[in-house]
Amino acid sequence: MDNVHRRAQPVHLTTPVTALAYHDNDILLSGQGPYLKATLISTAETLGCIHLGQDWKIHQIVMANVQRISESIEARLFMVYGAKSLRVLRLCVDRSSESDSPSAQFQHLWNIPHFKDWIVDAQWLWNKADLPGEHPTTRPNLRLPVTTPPTSIAIGYAHNFVEVYQLPQDPFPIPVETTHKLPTDDNLSNFLIVYSVQSEEHCTLFCGRFHNNTLEDLWFASGTVFCHALLWKVYHGGGVEAPVVKSLIGHEGILFGIRWSDDGKAVCTVSDDRSIRIWDITHPINITHTTHFGHTARVWDCQIVGPYLISISEDASCRVWRNPLLTNAAEADDASDCLACWEGHEGKSTWGVAVSDHGVVATGGGDGGIHLWRLDSIVAGTTDAEQNTKDIDLPAITTYFPDATDNDKEFVRDFVITSQEQSVYSTNAGYILVRDDEKETWSTLFYSSLLKNYSSLESSICGRIVVAGCLSGRLVIVSVANEFEPLITETLGGIKIQFVFVLNGTDRDNFRIVVFRANCTVGVFNLNTAVGSATATCTHICDLKLPNNNKAIHAAYFSPRYNLVLLGSRDSTVLAYKLLRSNADIEAITTLDSIIELKRCHGSETVSSILMVTEEGEGVGGKDRISVYSTGRDGSWTKYRFLGLPGGETIGSTSSADDEDEDVDMGDSDDDGYDANESRDKSALQRGEESSLDDRESGTTIVLQKIFRSKITRGWLEQVFIMDGELLLLGFFNKKLFVYNESKHFELTAGSELFKSAKLQTNFHGREVRQMRFLNGAQPLIEGAPTPIIFASGGEDCRLRIFQYIPYKTKNSCTALKSLCNLKPSVGSTLRCLEWSYTSDSQTYLLFTGGAVESMRAWQVGMSIPNSYQVQLIEDQSGNMIPEHTPLSLGCLELAQCPHASENMETRIMDLSVFKLDGHPRKHFVAAVYSDAAIRVWLFDEAVNSFVLAIDASHHAKCILQVSHLKLEEGGVLMFTAATDGKIAVWDITGALDRFLEVYSMDAIKASQASSSSSVGRERKRARRDHVQALGTPAVEVSAHMSGVNGLFVQDIGVDGIVAVSGGDDNALSVTRIKTVWDAKLRTIKVSSAKAVYRNAYAHGSAIQAVIMINNSEVVTTSQDQTLTMWGLNLLEDGGADMHMLETQFIHVPDPSTMDTIAIREKQHPLVAIAGIGAQFFDIEPAQQ
């Protein structure tokens, strides 16, 4: 027994970001639950983080003025409030460091935990004589410099009254070092009420906002639950109640947000009716307003920022609108235009928004992420902005066509941009013209009657070569710099050329030209342009055969290293062809079949570009890592990996499958029901023909694996390219061109150098998490590195995510989650359960997921690090040098999807338990329980990547909620199930597994794999029952609860038998003790006794959601009452049990649904994580005596 009493110490929290405020253009303050953090937006570096107390949730941050202490040091008071609590703090920023990063320190001044009512707004107030002019409320950074500190604060309450408190004397000097002690005393007695007033309209408010910073000029805007806003002056002539000066009526729902304009001449309100209304209050009687619709859910807030309105909503978006107050009457019809819709947060709600003076908009989401956006990106790149477009007119036709007549209609047929200073145009009259875009001069490059009335123009990447496809099926090849004589070549029998692709070849003077003809055929040509030669040669190498009914080719890429041509089609197919080394001895033109065909790479949309990248020596075992990228008009980009190419990784090299950090999507909810498996045409691995690139007799298999698809825009992505080692994506959306930096996750626009990453803080799930599981037993990938802490999670957002938890704190960083993988396996399929399993490769694992529509999948998860990586030492908060956690790369490849076994397609998989048997290292048994009371055990065989149904049973006659297993030392296996009937059933499945393995033969079922595994195609197959075993009745059944069992944890205590600890919907915590006897001859387990020996009917105030045992004597539970409780477990000699509460504490995770634990080797104590709407982590440490 472990009798050391422990306590749960919260160490990390990721919940919705509810408050944001800028200190200046560089430092952003954010509130997330009880945590307040200062972040340098240029580098995403955490400058400081404090915890305000377990009962805190920050709703708003209110900044005071900046006080300059010295040339490099400044300080600033600010308030944070939430519910009925308020704290006053000071932020001190020191920029004297030699590094580029400033240091930031927090100092707690006053704590007022219990005001008389819910706080809806707070405001700093000064003496009027101390303020140089009028000072608006909404944009504190725009105020004129104020040197004196504020003298009082105004508090607006939810019952429409205001109190003004005089600030006491500052208890601390401006800090030199951080004050770590958190004041818990109530300092309200130190604050003297100098003024109090109730509005004449007694009502309840959902929002309120002050305007001005002196008591004499203070106004309050009240957003009521009765759908209208009230404006009233706080300081008035007499009487206890202040009269309402203006009433703003028009909304059809509760007001959730209200803001003043900087000058106080307008008010912005947002409501439950999904509208934004701007009220012009300059007129004393006739108040006018404009209404803006566009959000698809409730609107939480809207700020008036110069020419823009910036709103956030429950639909998780941030929208930018034109400010109608600054719109001319002639533009009134466009006054409500939405200029931008920024979508990046997942799930529900963008809760917080802040705008810097430089126009950087920060948004905080319900997913726990913080995103940065730029206001100047609204204008930059838009095609309807005059300053960003330039009209180009052809020169007078007589300057290059002397014989032109009035009947000759001249216009541009096609054009290409060959450099920043030069562009080339083909005209209707058959001319190819070159324009010097700097000097704005024109010259004639070539004329041919073949180009009259039609031409398809394309240039080489270097811009030296221009190729025009003709209506007659010929190619016109010209040199922009006249390096060789123009060349005209035949392609195929006078068939119109629709598209031309000029691709780089083996050297500077060699090119591959790919043409797509009107009869849906593709030709490949070899162009040589030797330096100093007056002529060029163009040879028809081969034709490429397209699949039946294939549509036009829109993208092409040539790899001279592997002699491969990759094509992307309009129907979202990617094709690969191996070219012949030479066709000099072949008289007839060869037509080649594709060696690889991947369908639905971008749903049903066009593949717009393809790129192939080889990273030498970065693959597994020092081999080359060969990646392929494609973009599509579905707004996404897709990554693939080649296996089996010369010098590259081979099949099974999964540990380097993915080197991306974040936001990896297999599909998207906007994709018309796209399923991850639809991209797999023949198997989980897209295989080419059984041939080697260099030797068809060698039988080498070429494989192209689809790793992930990531959607970044609702518009089109048109080009993918590499610049300075970073992946850049060119796209078009809503009349706007943009370039997106995928490695840094932000859009490149004017001024984007202000921050490196648009994701200031990694997001978690956007909806409730239903299951999370740590990867226990993971090994360091390099000697000297700490054990990686990896966990997988899934939930209501239908996403499978894998994170790395970074447990240490340094001077400039907090504990953190690093997103390694973000998959959406299928649309509308909630992930309810997941479990890990292990392979013979220490860097490769299997992950099984289950959920709605009876969906269960097997994933192969491989981890890797750069071959050149060396462990770095960093300094933690205590000044100790510790090894940093390895920056992992992770690949997650779907191997198979389990077939249907239930009659009802709506059946849900409620829980999973995975185990392996001795002597069968590549066979994984997955016990699954279903909402239709079914109990099934599936075999997943690594050898064929397939599910086979091994055991099928039914019990409880209710929805089964929990399943677990226990492997006995003797070799037997017990399975435990629990359902909504409150009963726990114990099953001996040893014999059924033995019988199944006797009849299971890989050779016998190979032919049935296509139908027994549904990793193939769109149609889910039904499970074959060739080898299914029955179970009969459970060995024993125990009534542990009055209703559903939500948490079940089973542990073998040794001589004390088996203990099953459970928690249920009845708020009860139960302990069941089980004794077993192993019959070695019959290979059966007999349950000699089973009894619920302890039950605490009032363990929690609401349904218990999860139960775990961290050792043989301590249990942790969590409940819908948002508490974590630790219990001491004492197993009595008479076979009974007793439990006593060790501690309980509030958790900042709404709707907690799942909990798991992992033992951290370096810390010698367990880590517990609870997830729901967010996640919170606790170190289970020995309690201080």
From TrEMBL:
Keywords: Cytoplasm, Repeat, tRNA processing, WD repeat. It is found in: Cytoplasm. PROSITE patterns: WD_REPEATS_1, WD_REPEATS_2, WD_REPEATS_REGION. WD repeats lie at residues 248-281. Residues 677-696 have a biased composition (Basic and acidic residues). Pfam families: WD40. Belongs to the WD repeat WDR6 family. This is WD repeat-containing protein 6. It comes from Linnemannia schmuckeri.
